[in-house]
Structures are given as C-alpha cells and as structure tokens.
Backbone:
C-alpha cells in the first residue's frame, strides 16, 4: 500500500511540497467550484469531501470550539481524533461564531462567492441565525443550498433528535437485516455514508441545473429518507403479504447458496452462488454433485445450510480458498480490517493510502477513476483565518 510520510494536519499555510497536490486538484471535474461546508460530524463533511475529491475548493466553517468530531475518539498528537482528520482532509477549516455579527458577516462574504452550501443544522436554525432562505437568495441567487438533516425539513419528526441508528431503524435499513432473533447494526453507519453520497449527487445536479437556468436551488436531503429510498422491493412484498422474515429469504440468509459460513480456524467466508452455473461449479469443486439439484429447495433451506456449515467448519479458510478459487463460484473470504490493505485487488487498485507519522492513518480515497487516472489524492486539512479564507476565494 502506498505510504506518505509527514504531518497529516497543518495549522496554517501550505507547504511547498503540497502545492502540487492543490494544483492537481484544479484539473479535476469540479475545478472552479467553491463549496462552503458548515456541517459537522459525518454526513455533511463526507459530502463536501466528495466534492473536494472531484476538484472543488472547500472551506469548512466550524464553531469556535470546533466540530465535535474533533473529539470523537482518542486524540492524536495535535489533540484531534483520527476520524476528524480523515473526513476533513482536502479542506480549509475556518472557525467562526455565527452567533456574532462578525461571524455572520464573515460567512456572508463567503456565501456571496460560494457555488454550494452544505449545512446540517436542525430545521429553522439558519433562520434564527439570520441566514434563512430569503437571506441566502439575496446574498447569492445562484447558490446551490444542500440542507442535510436527519428527518427532513418538514413533518412531525423534523426537530426530533436522532443519529444513524435511529434513521436506519425508521427508514427500513434494519427490518430485513440480521438474524431471525434480532436485527443487526450496520457499520460504518449506513445513513451517514449514504446521505453523504446523496448530498454530493444532489449538489452536482443542482450545479448542472443552474448552468441551464442561472438560478440556485434549495435541496432537502434527509438521512432517513436516503435509506427509505432503497426499500421499494421489501415495502411492496410487505404490502402483498409475501415479505420473508429474516433468515428465510433468498438474500437474507434463507438460502444455502447465498450465505456466510465459519471455517475451522474461526474465520468467515461468503458464498454467493446465486446463478445455477456458479452453484453447480461450487458443488463439483467440493465433490457434492448431489447438491446441484437442491439449490431451489423451499426456503429457509435449513437442512442444506447445516450440511454446508458442517462442511466448511471441517477445514481452514486457506483450504477452501485453494479449493474454490479455481472454481470461480462467487466464494470470498471475509477480510479483516488488519489485512484489507494487503488484499491483492485492493492493493492493485491503489485506493488506500497509508500516512506514516507519529500516529499512522490509512485513508480510503474516492472510489472513482477518471480517464484511467488513479483515485484523486487529498491534501491535509488546513486551518485558516477569515482573511485567508477571503483571499482564497477572491
């Protein structure tokens, strides 16, 4: 895995060795686009980082005490959590108190020059700060305003507290996932990351629409609704009374050919041989021709699942790799995080970058390659003052 030595955070300025990184970013797809990120924690900052990865210039505004994510986990040498540094790489960070006239004036100047605003306040907060939709339109009629919130800008839950787990619970992300006894939490947080992608997509769509109309747009993105948007099939099955319970459906653990198994060395592997040709290839590779015609047994296929469970438990994961990899039957190991960077496919594609310093960081870059180029690299986050932020966008 590629390694980069040196600090991952700067307090001010840009070192000469980093000028090339910032310069390279100006040649990306969103070169010239300016994004003001006033969000906190994960979804908004991740959305802004995606836009930064695509070439946009991002200034992140934080309160005087900083984004709470700075203190989310054990602090590194500079007193910040690794999560914060990773999620905000590629940005300039400016601390402002939006409850003061000077803070609002500073952010107002940036808003007049911004193309995109990403914020994650509870509905109504911007109005109380004197930055409601009418004021934003007056400052910048072409602004693409992405309003990220847990529940959306309207409805009885609009002001209700929540985090990823609550949004996924209501949005349908837990109802079909897990064992027969209990739903299972999904990690990394599903709605946080899905909504970040949704917000970035919405921002780009807003910019495209503005290029035609000349007008900005207000985009209401809800974390819960981002997950809810994936639920058309299970909702339809539930309405028809045909929704399978957890561990009884084809894709929820009821099928032997699409299942997770434990090996003799206490490792895990998955089999996803949905198509008959893959299932047949698997059965022949394990010398169980008699299983071929059992693929379509009624679900849940408890007897067949038990047969495969017993078989996999008899040998190590490496044994099964050697036997099943040549069969090309949709068999893969569950890769632990500790060895994931060394996985041959991951290593070959170059998406992970290790930063060696006092505390190493492993950065997962944007999963995108433009015209065959490698994934875009990120510069470390840089803290700037208001004057510097103004100068950057002049």
Residues:
């Amino acid at each position: 895995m590629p390694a980069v030595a040196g600090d991952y955070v700067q307090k001010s300025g840009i070192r000469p060795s980093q000028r090339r990184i910032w310069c390279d970013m100006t040649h990306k797809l969103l070169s010239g686009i300016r994004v003001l990120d006033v969000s906190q924690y994960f979804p908004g900052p991740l959305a802004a980082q995606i836009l930064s990865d695509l070439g946009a210039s991002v200034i992140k505004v934080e309160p005087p005490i900083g984004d709470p994510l700075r203190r989310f986990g054990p602090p590194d040498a500079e007193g910040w959590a690794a999560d914060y540094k990773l999620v905000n790489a590629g940005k300039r960070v400016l601390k402002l108190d939006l409850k003061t006239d000077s803070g609002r004036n500073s952010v107002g100047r940036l808003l007049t020059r911004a193309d995109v605003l990403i914020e994650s306040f509870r509905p109504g907060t911007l109005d109380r700060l004197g930055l409601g939709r009418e004021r934003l339109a007056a400052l910048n009629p072409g602004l693409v305003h992405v309003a990220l919130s847990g529940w959306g800008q309207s409805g009885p839950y609009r002001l209700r507290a929540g985090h990823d787990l609550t949004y996924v619970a209501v949005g349908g992300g837990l109802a079909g996932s897990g064992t027969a006894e209990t739903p299972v939490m999904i990690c990394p947080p599903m709605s946080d990351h899905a909504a970040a992608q949704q917000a970035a997509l919405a921002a780009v769509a807003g910019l495209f629409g503005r290029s035609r109309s000349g007008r900005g747009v207000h985009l209401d993105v809800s974390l819960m609704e981002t997950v809810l948007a994936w639920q058309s099939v299970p909702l339809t099955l539930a309405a028809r009374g045909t929704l399978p319970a957890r561990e009884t459906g084809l894709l929820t653990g009821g099928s032997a050919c699409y299942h997770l198994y434990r090996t003799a060395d206490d490792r895990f592997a998955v089999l996803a041989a949905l198509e008959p040709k893959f299932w047949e290839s698997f059965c022949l590779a394990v010398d169980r021709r008699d299983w071929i015609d059992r693929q379509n047994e009624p679900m849940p296929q408890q007897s067949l699942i038990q047969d495969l469970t017993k078989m996999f438990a008899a040998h190590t994961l490496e044994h099964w790799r050697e036997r099943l990899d040549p069969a090309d039957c949709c068999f893969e190991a569950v890769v632990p995080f500790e060895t994931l960077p060394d996985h041959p496919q991951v290593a070959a594609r170059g998406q992970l970058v290790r930063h060696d310093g006092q505390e190493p960081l492993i950065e997962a870059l944007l999963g995108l390659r433009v015209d065959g180029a490698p994934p875009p690299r990120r510069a470390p986050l840089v803290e700037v003052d208001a004057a510097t932020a103004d100068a950057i966008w002049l």
User: Anything to note?
Assistant: The first strand starts at residue 3 and ends at 5. The chain has two domains: 3-230+350-392, 258-262+268-333. Residues 213 and 300 are 54 Å apart (CA to CA). The first helix runs from residue 16 to 25.
